[in-house]
Write a sequence for this structure.
């Protein structure tokens, strides 16, 4: 199934663990003060966009970012566990290490976590299902999801790593995702 509708993607606002380079994965770290301000700024940026629904990761950092946007839109807000960040097993909570780059290259499987391939397959399935709900869906999730999606589609321009709380509009066309920063 091809992606037939344009959609929006928003990575959550900054957390203290983003700032200090700790491995979050599926740990439920909270937005820090900067992250709250970023979420509010993203909500303002999306205020005039024709968002028809918001689907988010249930992790607090994505949930709170999505809730900030939802305050400006009279649309349904739902959560999908499949939009959670990768599960990095025993490394969650640790400082970033050399293993992390190897994980993103598919060359390292974290103990008690999900492989990069498993993560990519979960993400691609979740994105396809979510975008199929209709045009102008806003997905609020994690930077790792955008990296995983890039394994399946060419992105123009390449926005990886995706910055915190910078909304993008995506237009799928002929196996490519044309991305526009808002």
């Amino acid at each position: 199934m091809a992606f037939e509708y344009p959609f929006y993607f928003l990575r959550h606002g900054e957390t203290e663990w983003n700032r200090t380079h700790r491995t979050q994965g599926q740990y439920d770290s909270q937005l820090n003060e900067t992250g709250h301000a970023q979420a509010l700024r993203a909500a303002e940026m999306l205020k005039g966009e024709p968002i028809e629904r918001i689907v988010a990761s249930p992790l607090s950092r994505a949930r709170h970012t999505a809730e900030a946007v939802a305050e400006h839109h009279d649309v349904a807000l739902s959560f999908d566990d499949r939009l959670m960040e990768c599960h990095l097993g025993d490394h969650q909570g640790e400082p970033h290490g050399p293993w992390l780059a190897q994980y993103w290259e598919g060359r390292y499987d974290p103990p008690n976590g999900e492989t990069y391939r498993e993560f990519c397959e979960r993400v691609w399935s979740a994105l396809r299902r979510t975008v199929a709900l209709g045009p102008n869906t806003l997905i609020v999730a994690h930077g790792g999801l955008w990296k995983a999606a890039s394994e399946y589609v060419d992105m123009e321009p390449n926005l990886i790593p995706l910055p915190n709380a910078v909304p993008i509009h995506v237009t799928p066309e002929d196996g490519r995702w044309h991305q526009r920063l808002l």
Notes: The beta strands are 7-11, 53-56, 76-79, 137-141, 154-156, 168-173, 176-181. The mean pLDDT is 96. The chain has one domain: 7-181. The two ends are 27 Å apart (CA to CA).
